[in-house]
PorT family protein
Amino acid sequence: MQNARYILLFTILLFSQTVSFGQSRQRWSLGPRVGLNLTNLAGTSINVPGIPQGTNGNGSNELLPGLSAGIGFVYSDISRFGFGVDILYSQRGNKAKTIANNIEYTGINRVNYLEVPITGRYYLTRGGNFRPNIYLGAVPALRLSGVGTIKGNNSEISVNTTDDYRSADLGVTGGIQLNWGTGPRQHFTVDARYTQGITNIAYRATDVRNQMITIGLGYNFGIGRQYQPGDRKLPIRAR
């Protein structure tokens, strides 16, 4: 998991450099992001986590809704290619139900992360007020906190589970974003993406990975000089 931590550190350093370079190319935009996560846990070690299994073996592993919120940066060339970097607070985990001794138990595993999706984008149009794009990328993330809750038999128990989860995670993501122009260099965005964890997040298990569907809204503001068709793609300095 040290590798995932180093990847996140490298990402932050790379991002700080690309922001400076992107400003010189003057095609950046940024703005707030807010969305809904629908998350689950997958892997060979998943067996209705946190819940006692009933003798009838009746159990489920269900999607858990959570919050995604932060800020996003996008570089969009006048060609069809671009890339984006988001910095998001992201609630993940899963919801599990089972029946033991004719009593239904519900368990919620909530793990909160600071995630940094890095995506390459392909725009379906070269310009205009409507510019949808599809994207693929990686999602390094740092674990912030964790809590497990079990409800059933007229009782509720919550336990701090932060130390049960590894300090970093790495996933891959893909999705689609719709962009509508709403004013001078301003865009309203709607996007949907799927993220699949590729690293084990649990200390006490051999294979527990995050899965997540995110539906998000955003608003982008252009920064830097407005780029016009026919301008050079790289800044040319006077000699």
